[in-house]
Amino acid sequence: MPLFADLAPERLDRLCSQLTEQRLAPGEVLVREGDPGRGFCILIEGSLQITKLTNGVPVPAGRSEAPGFLGELPLLSGTPTAVTLQTADGCLLLRMADDAFRELIATDTTFGHTIFQTLYRRVAGLESFVRQREKMASLGTLAAGLAHKLNNPAAAVARATDRMHSLLGELDAVTCALHGAGVPEPAMDALLSLRNAAAAAAPVRTPMQESDREETFGDWLEQHRVPDPWRLASALATSAIDVSDLEPVAATLGAGLVPGMRWLCNTVELAALVDEAGRGAARVSDLVAAMKSYSYMDQALRQQVDVHAGIEDTLTIMRHKLKHGIAVVRRYDTSLPRIPVFGSELNQVWTNLIDNAADAMNGAGTLTVTTRRDGGYVVVEIGDDGPGITPEVQARLFETFFTTKPPGKGTGLGLDITWRIVVNRHGGGIRVESKPGDTRFIVSLPITPAGGPAG
To answer: Which CATH number describes the domain made up of 299-446?
Structure first.
């Protein structure tokens, strides 16, 4: 193998005496993701399938074919194995003693260069693979959250339009009945005025008050022999009128009282349904606008951005993860200037930090977002009142592939990506301050980019 091309024959013989043969049966696992490393191995025959857990599911990430070598990353870094290695058809490996590996790294130039060049390619490839999976997972999370939030207003619009179709048929029938009853014009004018009054903005009422009103309207309609009184009463109960407003109009309707009351209830309900459909459609439009703003579609890569708008778009997109037990406290400095940033990338930062904070609080607590100016920087703090982060973990938070989550639940790239976006892309800084009940990620972004005009 080229790995040992520069070794003298006697040294190669001594190295061979330090190798241990290992055969793997078909389907056997050499090492699992998250386990300690198994040392440096030379693959003589066969191949090993490389998989990486994504959301608990093993995803193919490559293949190692003979002749080759593996195991150098955990051995050199002292970190757990980042992937699972399993053979399909069986293979033959030679395991090198750890001391022999370290001696070769230190004394043989070709061996060291080959190891580190391969190590660089593997880490870069694995990082690229996991980044892509991380992006896809984030996109899936956002898509699921958006679909969840779109479902309610879309369903409300669908329900409202279905009911409106039914009401239109009923209105045709009661309108014909009104004409047939010979209701005089002043009575119709009074009925129209009552309908308009009912459509006005209703005062805020408690559920108990609404229930009492529905019972009162239902009793009145039943006493006046109006069919389906309890179905019709619900529309009147949520309107702006009271049951006392019905009597004067009812007295003028004469024989047209029943169709008149049915016409009134149906038109009031129809107006309420139109409002409901309008609110649902507006909510869908707002969500689409928030997603478009979040991703900065149809805009240049770098824009003058209001950081508060980006944070609010992110909170809107992630509302499904926050609404069931996490209170959001905003402490914004509204005098902050716009800053030149890569908008969609910066929103990835807010997404990662807010998502981590929600996980740290286990879905219940207070998320605090604070903004301020510090000299030539805009500072954003995203804090939570979770259990905190130990100093040992804080020291490694921004390391590539470092994660405190179990295999399959975290890739260790969320904060690495965050650091790269803030520091490498924007020339800013990010740090963490944490104690039990108070963890804050503090992001500093320059108001004026290096070499750029003052803003």
So the answer is: 3.30.565.10
